[in-house]
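User: Batch of two.

Assistant: Item 1 of 2:
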Amino acid sequence: IVATGYTTLIIEPNSNIEAPLNGYKLDTEWPALRLSIGSTLNGNGGTVTGSHSARDGHGGEAIEIYNGQSSPETASYASFYDGITVAGGDARRSGAGGAALHVHGFGTTATINGGVFRGGKGSSGDSSDDGSSIYANFGGMVEVHSGTFEGDMEVGDSSTIAFYGCFMKNGDKVTGVFVDETYLDVNVRTRDGGEVRLVSVAEQECETAPSSSPTNFPTISMPPTVLRSGGIRMGASCVYIIVSVLLSWCI
């Protein structure tokens, strides 16, 4: 599915979006769901799964939130809540697993308030080539307020992943507790100006200030960010799509 041009897509509980097998009758690098050019996703429930590899090759991404152009005015936005599962596709021989969520482009923002984000399984079987639960690059922003994450995260190219709650970072490892008492223990790899922010929240009392090793210097501490209304410009024409039934491609 591709939602573009200031489209709003709503995924309701009990929905299922699944990409076709990669390499069965065609090779595809497309995610199961892509948003671009000022579009908005509300993930209220259901399941989104990237393409599994049918032969040698990589698993596909489940969801890509994409700018689509070079202007912040065309940034796309996504919000996720408890009840949604986002899973990258699994690989076969000599392949890597697909990312669950890929946030790409200047101003593009994903706000995670809950849900399960699972990277696809790589072919090695030892997790070294498993897909990322979250992958942000080229100026993308991911704000994490809760959720369950299976698979490492990666942030690069001047992108940011921010964790809201009581967290500590030691090397690549981020551990701590969100406001809703969900525990987090995840590796976050950074490269090429990617940034990890640990943000304290007014309604949660932490035993220690959010900090990063080896410097152990407190990171940015600020009031919680107000959730965006969706990023749609006033006066723009919009198309609303509600997904509430089983939806998949058959090849």
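Item 2 of 2:
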Amino acid sequence: MPKATGALVLAAGAAAFSGILLWRLLRSENKKEPDSGATRNRRTYGEAVEIIKSSGSVELRCVALEQNLLPLTFHDAGSECIFDNEDLMTHLLDIFTAQLDESEPNSQTFEETEARLCGWIISNVSFISKARAGFLELQNSRNSTVGRCLSLYLSSLLLTSPTDIVTTYDAGSKTQSLFLSVLQILVNVSAYDCNTIKLCELNLIQDLSKLLGKVKDEAGVEKLVIHILRVFVNFSISARDMTPEPNSDVMKCIDCVYGVSDPLTGSQSEEISERAILITTNLSGKLNGV
């Protein structure tokens, strides 16, 4: 056989062999069990809700929360669907608020993960317009309001060290922390003027001011500081158009927020300084009841 012909035969044989290997590989891949994504795509909203509300495996509940319910909240229509389901909202609030009372920073239990996911979902739902106005008045099955639960949580957090506060925020976690969800709820509800007085009455604004005062000089706190300042920006915009009485709850909050924000106007972080300047500008005319 001529050398050229032999080379062609060998090349053809190699190509055929490679084709067989590729076919077997694809066939093997196609026979694999569906991954969690495929399982997620087959699970309906109703099925996910039943799993989430069940008393079965907490690990399975976490999967349903993360893969089925959480993605819905990235769109207003999905958040509205969850918000309108009163039984589901109460269940999510029960899990979230119960863990606020007993959570440990960076806990690795499925119960902590479940509460984090519930808090993440709740904080996303609190963004939609129909939820914001009365969100602080929503109740869990123990008749405790969201506002009261958040207030107690921040009060307890104030009793910990600055390092523990930063650790609890857990900025780098894959699953949003309880503290981060609390702050996000406060960012969302503070954007509505009708919540301003309630936020002050519950000491939420004052306690946030104290928390900021405790952590602002710690290392690696930029994200946490900015998150708190986002609440204060909303508060300052609302308070700017109010005429609070001297020594009222709102006036006390104005003094606290201005006092803790003013030193941050000279921060090396441009994002922090810009927010602090906006806050102090909005509130400067309200100091001392002016």
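The two ends are 105 Å apart (CA to CA).
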